[in-house]
Amino acid sequence: MSTSDLQSILKQVEEQLAKAGKLPAAVEEAFGRLLNVVEALSSDKQALADEVERLRKQLEQKKKAKTTADVNNGDAQESNSAISTDLWVTKRSRRRAIFSIRIRTLRNMASRLPTRAS
To answer: Per-residue pLDDT tens for 3-37?
Structure first.
């Protein structure tokens, strides 16, 4: 039930009460309290609707942020895997280079050793 529906019903009730004439004080007080309750509930309903709207917007923002973060993380993961592969190749190349240097060094050292006289 919308706010305008509630206002329409309240207006109809007030008109019916006016047509009924003088009501006992207890009845008038009871109707007054009931109208206050309806007004408070209507106000609470509007506040809750506003809160729901705020939460929906917040959820949309979080979804957008997550989607953006997922896209960025995907790019980062791809670049990280590329970097990881490059490092592996670099480390492998470095090991080969070190091994080559050691072989050359050993050969140089071997060539400098005095030959054994037989």
So the answer is: 778 778 878 888 887 888 888 888 888 888 888 88
Q: How many residues does the chain have?
A: 118
Q: Which two tokens stand for residue 111?
A: 């060539």
Terminal-residue alpha carbon distance, the chain:
115
Close Cβ partners of 58 (under 8 Å, ≥ 6 residues apart)? none
Indicate the residue type of 94: R
Where are any strands of DSSP class E within 3-113? none
Q: In which residue are the tokens 């207006």 written?
A: 11
Does pTM top 0.70 for this prediction? no
Distances 106 to 102, 114, 117 between C-alpha atoms, Å: 6, 14, 21
Distances (CA, A) of 98 to 47, 103, 110: 73, 9, 18
